[in-house]
Design a protein that fits this description.
five-stranded parallel β-sheet, Alpha-Beta Plaits, 24% strand, globular, Rossmann fold, 21 strands, seven-stranded parallel β-sheet, 399 residues
């Protein structure tokens, strides 16, 4: 599939440049030129009034895919310094639920170099099978190695569903695999369910505008692929004794990759680990100002919580970007989430809706945040929180 520009019809009006969300078009000698970072979203095709831009979808076989040949759910694990990313275990928890519903096997796929002695420890996460692709060159992440190996595994084994963490690594190799297999891919899912009749995976995610939630299905192709942000689902421990382990020694060589890792630089992580916080106190526009966050910070300190905020608080520079929760920030699932002056727009809700307990404080009784809160307090947060702090201090003093 490719985007083509008819040089004779193109007038250089630049409407396609303005429409491209990826900056993948430039004007060269008054004619639009498609750059290599084009994602084939086709937004430029829709806005071109001269019909100078077209999308060529290629010739696909008219033979209908036999969906019955595909069976099982896969979770693709990623790792760093020989440690598997926690999102893989979160996806195994959801994968176990889905696989039990479909009555199919759940498989964890690992591409690595030194996991031989660690595979037995993974049985506590409830998978039925582990496929371990081993190569010394898989010690570090190579996108083309991952795409090549996973594509070949899929063609050989035909899984029905593939789940991948929406991390920087997962977002890199997942679309590469989908493109090689000519499949659809739903990114940044916040919900996964199964249609009992069709066996289609119902993949829920916010729309790009963020105002509504969309449920996406891929009814005519398999496997169904989805990436899920860390923190959406919770780890579930369900130890199985009879796990099958399939080890594949893969013969990669350096010439198989256009990338060469020369040096790995370990930078000290300064980002706030909101995803690991058990309690979070978050503020929104209703906090009123940067100084208004002082009272939230005091509450957070008493509760032993992390301080966070909605997107607008970061845009107004009331908080650092690393403390943003929501669609364009971090996804969290603490035991307690205290939302102060947060209206409850979908963009924020998708990042914190899986908290065990949500307490909302807002002066607007009709604020959408109350629709998902377990406990709600209607009133001015600058009057309520000082009272709450006073009561918490009394409890600490008495104890």
């Amino acid at each position: 599939m490719s985007i083509n520009v008819n040089n004779e019809l193109c007038t250089g009006c630049a409407s396609c440049l303005e429409s491209c969300p990826y900056g993948a078009i430039e004007l060269t000698e008054g004619v639009a030129k498609i750059l290599p970072n084009c994602t084939l979203c086709a937004s430029c095709v829709e806005v071109c009034s001269m019909e100078a831009i077209s999308i060529e979808r290629g010739e696909y076989s008219s033979k209908k895919m036999d969906l019955s040949e595909y069976n099982g759910i896969w979770v693709i694990a990623e790792h760093y310094k020989n440690k598997i990313h926690p999102v893989a275990f979160q996806l195994l928890g959801k994968g176990r639920e889905l696989s039990d519903f479909l009555r199919v096997n759940l498989t964890l796929v690992i591409l690595g170099a030194d996991f031989d002695d660690k595979l037995g420890e993974l049985k506590q996460y409830g998978m039925d099978e582990i496929i371990y692709v081993k190569s010394s060159l898989l010690k570090d992440y190579y996108s083309d190695f991952y795409a090549k190996a996973i594509t070949e595994l899929v063609l050989d084994n035909k899984p029905e569903i593939i789940l991948i963490g929406a991390t920087p690594t997962g977002r890199d190799f997942a679309p590469r695999v989908a493109k090689r297999l000519n499949l659809g891919l739903t990114a940044d899912c916040t919900g996964l369910e199964i249609n009992i009749v069709t066996r289609n995976l119902l993949q829920t995610r916010p729309t790009f505008g963020g105002n509504i939630m969309a449920t996406i299905i891929t009814p005519s192709s398999r496997p169904q692929m989805a990436t899920v942000r860390p923190g959406i689902f919770k780890e579930t421990l369900l130890e199985k004794q009879d796990i099958r382990i399939k080890k594949i020694n893969y013969d990669f060589n350096n010439q198989d990759s256009v990338i060469k890792i020369v040096k790995v630089i370990n930078k000290k992580k300064t980002q706030v680990d909101l995803d690991k916080a058990k309690i979070i106190v978050a503020g929104g526009r209703g906090v009123g100002s940067k100084d208004g966050f002082k009272i939230l910070k005091e509450l957070a300190e008493i509760l032993g919580a992390e301080l966070a905020g909605s997107r607008i608080t970061v845009e107004l520079k009331w908080l650092d970007a690393e403390r943003q929760v929501g669609q364009t920030g971090q996804t969290v699932s603490p035991k307690l989430y205290v939302a102060c002056g947060i209206s409850g727009a979908i963009q924020h809700v998708v990042g914190m809706q899986n908290a065990d307990i949500i307490v909302a404080i807002n002066k607007d009784p009709n604020a959408p945040i109350f629709n998902i809160a377990h406990y709600g307090i209607v009133g001015n947060l600058h009057e309520i929180i000082p009272v709450l702090i006073g009561e918490l201090n009394k409890i600490k003093t008495e104890s």
